[in-house]
Design goal:
The protein is an alpha+beta fold and 243 residues long. The protein is built from 6 helices and 12 strands. The longest helix is centred in the N-terminal third of the chain and has 27 residues. It is globular, with a radius of gyration of 20 Å. The mean pLDDT is 89. This is Extensin family protein.
């Protein structure tokens, strides 16, 4: 019993020291986004807890909208949708023209859950555009996608778990178009060592810090032509997949 008390005390002291070390690190580097208890700011660089904070927005539509508003992201709120069983959403948004976001989507009517929209905005600012400038010397003008909301189970298999697409908490990204018209596709450019493959891997890896799940052609044949990006709620507890 005494040994157990000593062990418990040691754990508490260690946790306290780690918390103090984290606080000192964040304060010295002026990076509040590295602290788990600070408010999410989409305009800040990606921090150690940005991904979990983004995923937490799946349960707090008002907080998500406030974060988009603070960052200057323009959007419209979509009407609630019910698809029966586990399908539907009450936190859907669609990006609107203007503001700090400069990437368009094709088709242009992409509607996603607010938490996915917030992650897409941070992905654009901190991952996609910097990678495009570094590798190609120009920005991304448009992202092509296969959509978000789809009332279905995973892989359309009967009895499987419901897909995150069933609640618009996922989006499938198929290609990127640069400012000069150059097109970069998952199905055609993932393999190899060229600049296009390098770019696709950079934006995949960067997305892993922001989305609960990132699946690429490295995962399986079903994803040979797109990135699957989702904000599964289990990501709040630290569960993340990046493949």
């Amino acid at each position: 019993m005494k040994a157990l008390r000593h062990l418990t005390g040691a754990i508490v002291v260690t946790a306290l020291l780690l918390t103090l070390a984290l606080l000192a690190y964040a304060m010295l580097r002026n990076r509040p986004q590295d602290l788990p208890w600070t408010q999410l700011d989409l305009g800040q660089p990606i921090g150690m807890f940005t991904g979990r904070k983004l995923t937490a927005l799946t349960e707090d539509f008002p907080a998500c909208r406030a974060a988009l508003d603070k960052a200057g992201v323009r959007y419209t709120v979509l009407p609630e949708r019910s698809g029966g069983e586990a399908c539907g959403y009450r936190d859907g948004v669609r990006f609107a023209a203007g503001g700090p976001r400069r990437i368009g989507f094709a088709p242009s009517d992409l509607g996603v859950s607010c938490s996915v929209a917030a992650a897409l905005a941070v992905w654009e600012w901190n991952v996609v555009q910097p990678a495009a400038q570094r590798i190609f010397g120009q920005r991304v003008a448009e992202i092509e996608h296969f959509g978000s909301y789809n009332c279905r189970r995973m892989y359309n298999r009967e009895g499987a778990s419901w897909s995150e697409h069933a609640t618009a908490d996922a989006v499938d990204i198929a290609a990127f178009r640069l400012a000069d018209g150059t097109r970069i596709t998952l199905v055609g450019d993932w393999a190899g060592e060229g600049k296009k493959a390098q770019f696709l891997r950079a934006v995949r890896d960067g997305g892993c810090d922001l989305f609960a799940t990132v699946l690429s052609p490295d995962y399986n044949e079903a994803h040979r032509d797109h990135f699957h990006l989702d904000q599964a709620e289990r990501g709040r507890m630290g569960w993340r997949a990046c493949r």
